[in-house]
Amino acid sequence: xxxxxxxxxxxxxxxxxxxxxxxxxxxxxxxxxxxxxxxxxxxxxxxxxxxxxxxxxxxxxxxxxxxxxxxxxxxxxxxxxxxxxxxxxxxxxxxxxxxxxxxxxxxxxxxxxxxxxxxxxxxxxxxxxxxxxxxxxxxxxxxxxxxxxxxxxxxxxxxxxxxxxxxxxxxxxxxxxxxxxxxxxxxxxxxxxxxxxxxxxxxxxxxxxxxxxxxxxxxxxxxxxxxxxxxxxxxxxxxxxxxxxxxxxxxxxxxxxxxxxxxxxxxxxxxxxxxxxxxxxxxxxxxxxxxxxxxxxxxxxx
Length: 302
Fold this sequence. Notes:
2 domains, 58% helix, hpI Integrase, Chain A, mainly alpha, DNA polymerase, domain 1, 4% strand, 13 helices
């Protein structure tokens, strides 16, 4: 069944699953989002709105007023609005709806939540965890290297095709949100890992199947988000990483490490595929914290 044919409750299930697999959110956060969306669904039912496309900006504003009338404070209402923003952006991205009804609704500012990142040493340990003597280990090592080298979203990584990778030039072509194409350099480590995987492991994993995708699982099909999420968790445990990580953690770390190394913000924005540079600027706060720590640690007057 196509996602656009699903009812509101099923759409919410799809979104929560996306948050789990793509964003790697904690269980408590997922429960909070689910509760917020369940409350929103109850409101829509009371208003006789049974199709998500009918939930327009006016309905969103009435919902926020309803929350206020029930005694929710401004911070709680802002949290509900954040939940709705993410949900409706997801629906637009999946082409369930054509316009985002929450886009014009103002959100109070309550500070900046910084993304979780791994240190360079932690990333290095994770990248060296797969057993590269085995075909699947070679594939996993190549996937992790490319994920970090290019700062890809997990959906972009899984849908890279063989023709999208240029090892000689050292670039990968991906199609991000809105099918927008971008070309990203990948560096020598990723080039070597991917080259070894293509030469040594990919033919054996394909067996008698044919696939256009670079990274293949069973029957030549691309790996699922859930399958890759499980691999990340397994390798994190093996590497002894105590932090809660997800595929998106590699993207956060990619951006932060570039900025810590002196990369231009606009260049990082282009590589990440962010339309608005303000989305990228969140990483400058992480890099700034790192620089402050280095100054305090090493400067004689720090």
